[in-house]
Specification:
about 20% helix, alpha+beta, globular, about 110 residues
Length: about 110
């Protein structure tokens, strides 16, 4: 059973969001509380609770999310200087919304975690 999240409302355009890219597999939109000058959230259009729920039947979604992040980084002109892609997984990994999502951050020098 899936829990309803704000992401479904954004995907279905029930609430406003600054959508930068959408296709049949993913939706990408600007984060409303950006942590960098460029902060885009990339979410699958189908419900996947977390990274742990990626399996053989839906691994193409994760691949498409990464490919889309690269395309957005290039179009935002941050690919040369660098950017960060983050996926938090479950509570201890920092995932706050139980819906798989990827953060694309850039536009300034970002702190290296490791």
């Amino acid at each position: 059973m899936q829990n309803h999240t704000i992401f479904q409302d954004i995907i279905n355009k029930k609430i406003p969001a600054d959508i930068v890219y959408q296709d049949r597999i993913i939706t990408a939109f600007k984060d409303i509380k950006p942590k960098a000058p460029i902060h885009i959230l990339i979410v699958p259009n189908i419900f996947i609770k977390s990274l742990n729920k990626i399996d053989k039947s839906n691994k193409h979604v994760l691949e498409h999310m990464i490919y889309t992040a690269i395309k957005i980084a290039k179009s935002a002109k941050i690919s040369q200087d660098g950017y960060k892609i983050i996926i938090n997984c479950n509570k201890n990994g920092g995932q706050e919304i139980n819906y798989l999502h990827m953060h694309l951050l850039g536009g300034e020098k970002l702190i290296a975690l490791y």
